[in-house]
Amino acid sequence: MPEGHSVHRIARQFQRNFVGSRVSLSSPQGRFVAGAAQLDGHVMTDARAVGKQMFLEFDHDLWLRVHLGLYGAWDFSGEIMMDATIASANGRMGQTNQRGTTVPAILDSAGENSLHSIGAPRRTRVRMSEQEKESYAPETFPPEPIGQVRVRLLTDTVCADLRGPTACEVLEPAQVDAVIAKLGPDPILDPSIEAEDRFVATVRKKSTPIGLILMDQSVVSGIGNVYRAELLFRAGLNPYAPGKSLTDDTVRALWNDWAHLLTIGVETGQMMTMDNLEGDAYSLAMANRADRHWVYKREGLPCRVCGTHITLEEMGARKLYWCPSCQR
Q: Rounded to two decimals, what is the model's pTM?
């Protein structure tokens, strides 16, 4: 499932390429014809992400809400302008490492940091990421829809196709407020001490295991299976420890580490969770998911710190990866 960093990057794509433009909407698949008609021909005025959900505002006080879920993804084509926050000095796509240094973008094998396709990996995404070179240029614009496109957003220069979302609906402002009110704080959207305090207070009241709490979008927005495993390992926390058993300082450290990793994810497009990598080690980690995580998908392999075999279990109907020695 696409996690919070991906959705923030998608929102930034829309901010950069669609906000301020009149947009044509259609539903090539046919499942969102009525919703597309409500928004078709209007100017997009805002694009924002809250955790795993994105909200696009139009000039007649209607919003498009999208939750990608397990399989959803956006594909972009046309004259795409990159997010200025990930552009290098020479104007080409770049990414920022943990020490704040901008380096040329390194594409991984799944195209996770692609400008052309963001969301759940699938064959069309790999196809697009393979084309993502300086010479990339669609033969026609707009391109023919590929697969089951729920909704297409089109301007004179840019096209965005949505496939496989869990939710895609038109909402009024009060309905948007109601959805957001049910979500936990997102450190990109709200880095305030009040947001941190809200997270700490909620976690400290719960007898639920912290491994489940972090996946609860009403407690904190944006954390999925990868970030859950990596955050707990970095904190040295047993996934089964009840939230109320943790100290305030421990929970605050979790919040701050989530803000740290989320920022890296938004800037690089990849869930980089290993710090202090430089040179070849950094390039290798950015190019291969297996080289940039502490425990995720490393079941049966020795822990990078202590050598104990990483354990794979099920928690909340999702796979849980952890080190029984480092996370006692």
A: 0.86
